[in-house]
Amino acid sequence: RSGYIAIVGRPNVGKSTLLNHLIGEKISIVSRKAQTTRHRITGILTEADAQFVFVDTPGFQTKFSNALNRAMNRGVTQTLNDVDLVLFVIEAGRYDAKDKAVVRLLPKDRPVILVINKTDLLKSREALLPFLAEVSADFDYTAVVPVSAAKGRQTQDLLKEARKHL
Ligand code: GDP
Ligand code: MG
């Protein structure tokens, strides 16, 4: 099994931390920076039964103030419609206009996993329930996985879920 995966989300939600954690702790990295005709590859994780190819979504803009941003976002939309799986990352307990701008670009015809990062900052797990209801109302997510990228918590659960969609 092998598939292309895009990690998206507004700045500062922890996308880079998550990617570094996912590929950084594994020895079997083929390449950290590579280019295919269709994608810029930011990391490859190779396991015994699966290969996860992470790709960049360059030019991503969360402001929609002008035509240039809209044009750049069309490029992002193209990338998201060309991967096998999208990981949409948000911060636990925070869902703002910039997150919602990303939601508008998510593809409706392929799997999108909602990754709720920074769960280590939560006071209680129960606090996630109303938050999850609010976020899920805006998009039909394939799965929801709470993680702490920084602490490496539940990231294996995320890979397990992602593997189903390769
Ligand atoms: P990106 O802009 O989405 O790529 O976000 P970064 O990976 O650069 O992370 C933004 C900030 O959030 C950094 O200061 C990270 O250390 C911090 N961060 C990322 N993941 C976590 C997490 O799971 N818990 C906490 N507490 N901080 C995190
Ligand atoms: Mg980053």
Write a concise synopsis of the structure shown:
The protein is an alpha/beta fold and 166 residues long. Helix content is 30%, strand content 23%. Mean pLDDT is 87; it is low at 26-32.
Structure description:
With 166 residues, this protein is an alpha/beta fold. The chain has one domain: 3-Layer(aba) Sandwich (Rossmann fold). Helix content is 30%, strand content 23%. It has helices spanning 15-24, 67-80, 97-103, 128-136, 155-163; strands at residues 2-8, 34-35, 40-46, 51-55, 85-91, 112-117, 143-146. Residues 26-32 have low confidence and may be disordered. Guanosine-5'-diphosphate binds at residues 9, 11-17, 117-118, 120-121, 148-151.
